[in-house]
Amino acid sequence: MCKKKAIITGITGQDGAYLAEYLISKNYIVHGIKRRSSIFNTERIDHLYQDPHVKNPNLILHYGDLTDSMNLTRILQEVQPDEIYNLAAMSHVGVSFDTPEYTANADGIGTLRILEAIRLLNLVKKTKIYQASTSELYGLVREIPQKETTPFYPRSPYAVAKLYAYWITINYREAYKMHASNGILFNHESPIRGETFVTRKVTRAVSRIALGTQEKVFMGNLSSKRDWGHAKDYVKGMYLILQQEEPDDYVLATGIATEIRDFIKMAFLEIGIKIIFKGKNIDEKGYMVELDKNLFEKNVGLKYLSNIVKRIKNNNLVIEVDSSYFRPTEVDILVGDASKAYKKLGWKPEYNIKSLVSEMVKSDIELFKNKVINRKKYF
Ligand code: NAP
Ligand code: GDD
């Protein structure tokens, strides 16, 4: 039997990497679209990479960009995919306030370019498409928890661009009978999460503070709440959405909301350190107040224990607030109701917030213990 062919845009990102591995394990040939960059940007998929001279490879990379319709159309024509997972996006909400026009182009019109290519190439009957929609669409939330029928109220250029992508996907489904579906995914994280998203920023800082290579970390709004799951669970949901007979839109979420402050506490607790917060707004600060030496030794190492004991005694300040990380309009709470996905797809996350935090902290400790950072000066 012929292997199925899938195109993944955004294959070098967190979700693209997990999904590529998952689809290859399901015997797909995966075609990934990556941007040209001045330095290698395939670290997350290097373990899947195959030399282009290998016979019958199961991973093939193409240069491309969501802002370039001709290039996307050419790749679709060459590959004739059974499935497309459109994951590429300028995905940082904070950065979208600095680059609103580019974000609209890549995240909004980018989706249109792919849908239009499917139509122009007469692939409507053959190719199914998954659009990476987002819980950010709910923004200033109209109800708690949010589900497929909850009205949207986007609060950033990113969310507004994704709103266009959401509706154009539905419009092409209705107008041309495309198998086009939206996954409205709540936040999902992992050890390979981008370093500037809040969870990874925290787990990296916790690890480096534990190893004695960082003093403290500056954070933005500590009061917002997010529904955090693991990317591994969520890419399985993406796959399931495209295996349905009929296209449709689904929320994927864990149903549990956690405050940023509590995520920070949980990450430090993973290495036996208790954090308390004092002060308000911009003057709020986080301090290390207690240490479980056995847990620290187990999860970080005996070698680093005396240093952290000294730190807690002499200077226990580890969290400060920097208002430059505040967003002009914030999304205060996101928490999803994924019962439709559970009923129709049989999708249920395996990870919970505790196992997610634990895996991320342990992975970052390993990373910073073993990585030889090349800090040669440029001049
Ligand atoms: P990510 O780690 O930031 O990855 C984004 C990917 O898109 C990267 O491969 C990036 O390439 C690529 N990309 C960015 N702009 C592009 C362009 N103009 N043309 C082609 N490729 C471009 O994001 P993620 O967390 O994996 O998320 C995947 C998708 O799901 C995104 O669309 C995101 O908005 C959406 N989403 C994510 C979450 C979440 O919590 N993770 C939740 C809901 C929805 P480079 O590697 O070259 O930068
Ligand atoms: N990034 C970041 N950095 N966020 C911070 C910080 C900080 O130092 N301090 C506090 N926060 C707060 C943000 O203000 C926001 O309320 C929350 O932490 C989460 O921020 P991010 O981790 O950047 O994620 P996001 O929720 O804005 O967006 C992510 O999830 C969306 C799904 O809901 C991204 O992955 C989006 O692409 C995705 O659509």
Structural summary, described in words:
- 39% of the residues lie in helices and 17% in strands.
- The protein is of the alpha/beta class.
- The longest helix is centred in the first third of the chain and has 21 residues, at 100-120.
- The N and C termini lie far apart (57 Å).
- The mean pLDDT is 97.
Q: How would a crystallographer describe the biggest sheet?
A: 7 strands, parallel
Q: Work out the number of β strands.
A: 15
Strand order in the sheet with the most strands: 3-2-1-4-5-6-11
Termini Cα gap: 57 Å
Residue windows where pLDDT falls under 50 for at least 5 positions: none
Number of helices: 12
- Which molecules other than protein and nucleic acid are bound? NADP nicotinamide-adenine-dinucleotide phosphate, guanosine-5'-diphosphate-alpha-D-mannose
Radius of gyration: 22 Å
Along the chain, the helix and strand elements come as: EHEEHEHHEHEEHEEEHEEHEEHHEHH
Return the structural class: alpha/beta
